[in-house]
Design brief:
This protein is mainly beta. The chain contains 5 helices and 45 strands.
């Protein structure tokens, strides 16, 4: 799937001139591969990459003769599931001489033979693992990708936390850029080492250096992968950068709303500058990759680009990396990939159409932040939750404000078309969308009728799968905002519909208080006593703890949300994670004419048991038979 070029283009247009370009490099530099007993070295006159034949680790990456990688807990750059195992082979898969020096590629492959393989930080798995690196003529970036293959005769297995990680040279890199809001000179490694650990091992209060007295936390730099096509580190002294560039998210988990770690200071001694590219993430709701016995399964993760550039300040280097990301998205899928399950452009299909939202209670002629995707339809007869899926491929684009969309470069197969948008509660789904190689499928006009359970009595927030519109939502990534809750809301949240402002009067998270459950109240007036059935619609974008939310109306128990998925958003300084809607239905006779009070109790007790609301809406169906049958 091609990354949303409209998003990348918008970023570029807002941040720097269209004609900004990378420094001119020597495009005549041919690729060579030098091999010894333990390593391959791919090189041109600008960059060289040394790869371990045993593990597939990138043990050295030199750009203009300067070493980019360092050592902090693990040497260099590496996939979490390494290539060590029962039968490991190393081979040149693209010979530079055969391509006239235009490209070279090497591969390290371990064959499982039904046994568990890999001993890296991602654990082991019953699957064949192949790791590849490729370099092009005159380029300053190295591509890498990993291929997992589970044969039918292999036992059932699952893939643990899975990523590519690079530990960078701390003597070179000092500035990290994730996005426009999170980019700065980072604390020095020695400042981290001398810091004081706080409530988690990943959190330290710095005691020395420029940021003395401030807190450093690796989760402060988590980001939505779909919206972060290029991120990395740069050097004030050497005026160069190293960036991870994902040309597509088809191989990543969780679709366009998945939040994951990106970069930080390593938690190990030495605190090297670190970059992470997660394809099966365990944070903010996690993702699953479980393979059954007798199941044939393969997945190609990547190729993605480890890109080096030079010739400017931090801002210029980042903007040029974004420009390179846009070019990579246009080039996807790459024509030079072969020998693995990777359909080329002419072997993929396109799906287009236009979605119109028909909601008589909220008429609109524009759609804000429309995301449209093709997701796996079923797996072993079960529906696939796209937010939790890392096993399959997903294809997402950003639609226009009129609902138009075009999803290109889709692998052939059967999918469910899905859509989400700001301001619309829930999602659109259309099953049985079949994509054929080399074909364009125009779905035409599609109508999205959002679910309603009666007329709306009130709402709090905006349905956007995030708590960003609430208090602290504008700077949510600062560590420990949950610690401010007892001071800012000493009597908990008391929200008066029609008077209170959710930007200041509704906290971004509902945490327990000193090990005790907290209760938030919503006060609202009704002109007359209603009848029928009422539905409280709670959209949850973050939770921890299994008790859910208890709901009471005028001191009568109205029900409970039931168990919420553990997404651990609050204590990881997040604003969104796994999204789910929980409806609490109750007899409208619980309500009365005049002032009504609804109470929401977070039953959690541990300090991590925070709940983040995306949106709340109370609906009334006066024609429905009430729960008590009267």
């Amino acid at each position: 799937m091609t990354l949303p070029v409209t998003l990348v283009g918008a970023l570029l247009a807002l941040s720097f001139p269209v004609n900004a370009a990378a420094p001119v490099e020597n495009t005549k530099a041919a690729v060579t591969i030098v091999e010894d007993d333990t390593t391959f070295t791919l090189a041109n006159s600008l960059i060289s990459a040394k790869v371990s034949k045993r593990s597939g680790d990138l043990v050295s990456l030199k750009y203009k003769a300067l070493e980019m990688l360092g050592a902090s807990g693990h040497v260099g750059g590496y996939w979490s599931h390494t290539g060590t195992g029962q039968r490991t082979t190393a081979a040149v898969t693209i010979e530079p001489k055969a391509s006239g020096g235009d490209r070279g590629e090497v591969a390290i492959k371990v064959v499982s033979d039904g046994e568990r393989v890999g001993n890296g930080p991602g654990g082991s798995v019953v699957a064949d693992i192949e790791i590849r690196y490729a370099l092009s003529r005159g380029d300053t970036g190295v591509y890498t990708y990993s291929i997992f293959t589970h044969k039918p005769e292999y036992a059932a297995t699952s893939v643990g936390e899975a990523r590519f990680c690079a530990k960078l040279n701390p003597n070179v890199f000092d500035f990290m850029t994730i996005d426009a809001r999170r980019r700065k000179v980072m604390p020095k490694p020695e400042d981290w080492d001398k810091g004081t650990q706080l409530n988690m091992k990943e959190v330290r209060r710095l005691n020395t250096g420029t940021y003395s007295g401030q807190v450093e936390h690796k989760y402060d730099y988590s980001a939505i992968q779909f919206e972060t096509p290029a991120y990395g580190w740069s050097s004030t002294e050497h005026k160069l950068g190293l960036w991870f560039v994902n040309p597509s998210i088809e191989y990543l988990s969780g679709g366009p709303t998945k939040v994951e770690l990106t970069g930080h200071l390593d938690n190990n001694a030495g605190a090297a500058p670190t970059l992470l590219n997660y394809w099966r993430g365990s944070h903010y709701g996690g993702s699953n990759c479980t393979i059954a016995k007798d199941e044939a399964w393969t997945k190609v993760i990547g190729p993605f680009l480890i890109y080096c550039n030079s010739g400017g300040d931090h801002d210029k280097l980042w903007k040029e990396a974004l420009a390179r990301a846009a070019k990579e998205a246009e080039a996807w899928p790459y024509g030079w990939v072969s020998g693995v399950d990777y359909p080329l452009k002419n072997q993929r299909g396109t799906v287009s159409g236009q979605i119109a939202v028909e909601d008589p209670l909220t008429p609109r002629n524009k759609i804000s932040n429309l995301l449209v995707g093709l997701t796996p339809q079923t797996a072993a007869g079960q529906a696939v939750d796209w937010q939790l899926d890392a096993k399959h491929y997903q294809f997402w684009v950003r639609g226009d404000e009129k609902g138009g969309f075009k999803i290109a470069n889709v692998r052939p197969g059967a999918y469910t078309l899905r859509a989400i948008a700001d301001g619309v509660l829930g999602e659109y789904a259309k099953a049985d969308v079949t994509v054929a190689a080399g074909k364009t499928l125009d779905l035409g006009a599609l109508v999205w009728k959002p679910v309603r359970h009666g007329r709306q009595l009130w709402e709090i927030g905006v349905p956007n799968r995030s708590a960003e519109e609430f208090k602290h939502g504008d700077k949510y990534w600062a560590w420990g905002l949950y610690n401010e809750y007892p001071k800012e809301f000493p009597h908990d949240v008391n929200f008066v519909v029609g008077k209170s402002d959710w930007k200041t009067d509704w906290n971004y998270a509902q945490p327990p208080n000193d090990g005790k459950p907290t209760t938030w109240t919503i006060t609202f007036d009704l002109a007359q006593a209603p009848r029928g059935k009422a539905t409280l619609r709670l959209a949850i974008c973050g939770s921890r703890g299994r008790g859910g939310v208890d709901v009471a109306v005028n001191d009568k128990s109205a029900g409970n949300t039931g168990r919420l998925l553990d997404s651990g958003v609050m204590h990881r300084d997040g604003i969104r994670g796994y999204w789910e809607e929980k409806d609490v239905v109750f007899d409208a006779s619980f309500l009365k004419a005049g002032t009504n009070v609804m109470k929401l109790t977070n039953t959690g007790r541990a300090w991590t048991d925070g709940i983040l609301y995306d949106y709340l809406r109370l609906e009334l169906d006066e024609m429905a038979v009430p729960a008590n049958g009267k």
